[in-house]
Amino acid sequence: MSDFPSFPPDFVFGAATAAFQIEGATREDGRGPSIWDTFVRRPRAVLGGDTGDVACDHYHRYREDIALLKELGVRSYRFSVSWPRVQPTGSGPFNAAGLDFYERLVDGLLDAGIEPAATLYHWDLPQALEDEGGWRNRDTAHRFADYARSVAEALADRVPRWITLNEPWCSAFLGYASGHHAPGAREGTPALAAAHHLLLGHGLSVPVLREAGAREVGITLNPDHVTPATSGPGDVAAALRAETQRNLMWTEPLLTGRYADGEDDTWGELIRHQSFRRDGDLGVIAAPLDFLGINYYTPSVVRAAPYRDEDPLSRAADDNRFEGVGIPRTRRTAMGWPVVPHTLRDLLVGLRERYGAALPPIHITENGSAENDVPAPDGAVHDTDRISYLDGHLRAVAAAIADGVDVRGYYVWSLLDNFEWAYGYGKRFGLVYVDYATQRRIPKDSYHWYQALITAQERGTTGPGLVRPVPGGRPTR
Ligand code: IFM
Question: What does the alpha-carbon distance between residue 128 and residue 398 come to, in Å, rounded to a whole number?
Fold first, then answer.
């Protein structure tokens, strides 16, 4: 940690999780089924047939997890509310027992001196809404705003920071185009309708959240840092299509109130029938934000490719004539994701250059790495690769701040090892190792490293040799 840059005094260091990935208790206290409860039971949908039924058992162990957060020293904890836990069918009556869980969680965090940051939608749509078309159906956007209102009316007096959606690109393109995520659909125009309705649901919920007392309202995107494989016009155009799908189709409506210019080249016939977009929608979607959440893990290098499916009638919305190429000479995480930290700085500076004053303050709402963690004979988890990943990316955030980007916070993904969606429990992103057989939590070396970093930042004592993380113990100086 020597020569580690100093962050502004009010910079928020945090850690993040999401409901379906950690809570378990999927059939308890009146929770309804979500699209992920259905999807995990589809043959071969999730590696090893893993489910969210128990996960990290956080629903029962949240007090222990709050104690881990307190010991870690984070200022803020980002969690998500499970929509089907608080409103089992996504419309109609709320489930008092479900809301009560989040009341207890929030009160426990506040007692521990930790600011709660709530995400309203981290992919666990109530199955009953999917049965009506899910996000393809415009009505789901209105159901989402109603849900947002009720949750905020219950919690906004104690939760200052609210995130409407987590990574709507994943909900639309992994959920309805590639089919790798719930609900597992492979569609064209309906997936683009889903993307639009996600944005609409976000926009409808922003004023509702404010009316209910939310102090800061934002949305979390996962923009990619895209580079063309060559400077040839074909690859450059392919990179723009990749950027349109991953970045611009989200940031342009949200921050400028316009649809992205590159849509026709990206989607061709699939976007020509736009009856799902109505007059006035852009005004709703562009509701002013208090912050923009950015989740960032790895960059992409892309080149031009033919359509995988020549037939626009059956073509999926992610079939946009580009493909990724490898990035040589870079370490890869256990996800196979290349580690190139400076691209986070470049992405942030690029957003600032593109949107100028229209770019709200930024919180890095997720960043972290999956590594092949195994407890060592001494009982500890020596995850030096994760420490190096986090170190590099935090330095990239500091560099972006030095370059004038208004970044206010950084949340490590994730507090705990957890259910990594289609990869099941095989991929470990946590600062804390979870032994799923016993539910024992073991803080990894990265946990102690982050703890030492936060302590040093708070004391204003970063600099050469000032902080030494002690695996398994408190930082020393
Ligand atoms: O685990 C996910 C999280 O749910 C959303 N952002 C990316 C993480 C790592 O894949």
Answer: 44
Q: Measure the CA–CA gap between 411 and 279, rounded to whole angstroms.
A: 37
pTM reported for the whole predicted model: 0.96
Q: Residue 247: is it exposed, middle or buried by C-beta count within 10 angstroms (0-12/13-18/19+)?
A: buried
| 3-class secondary structure, 95 | coil
180 in Cβ contact with 170 (< 8 Å) = no
- Residue 132 designated active-site: no
420 C-alpha vs ligand 1 centroid, how far in Å? 7
Residue 156 carries which DSSP code?
A: T
Write down all domains in the chain, each with its CATH number in brackets: 12-476 (3.20.20.80)
Q: Candidates 50, 296, 366, 386: which one to mutate for ligand 1, based on the most atoms within 8 Å of Cβ?
A: 366
Pocket of ligand 1 (CB under 6 A): 18, 21, 167, 295, 366, 413, 420, 429
Atom of ligand 1 nearest to the CA of 222: 6
pLDDT digits (tens, 9 = 90+) for 270-298: 998 889 999 999 999 999 999 999 999 99
Rounded Cα distance, 282 and 277, in Å = 9
The torsion angle over the Cα atoms of residues 187, 189, 192 and 198, rounded to 10 degrees, is -80
- Which of the 8 DSSP states describes residue 292? E
**DSSP state, 170?**
I
Is 115 a residue of the active site?
no
Determine the residue type at 361: P
Ligand 1 centroid – CA 194 distance (Å): 20
How many A from CA of 279 to the centre of ligand 1?
34
Beta strands in 172-245 (DSSP E): 216-221, 226-228
Contacts of residue 96, defined as CB under 8 A and 6 or more positions apart, other chains included, come to: none
Q: Which of 121, 180, 222, 295 to mutate to test the pocket of ligand 1 (most atoms within 8 A of CB)?
A: 295
Instruction: Report pLDDT digits (tens) over 91-111.
Output: 999 999 999 999 999 999 999
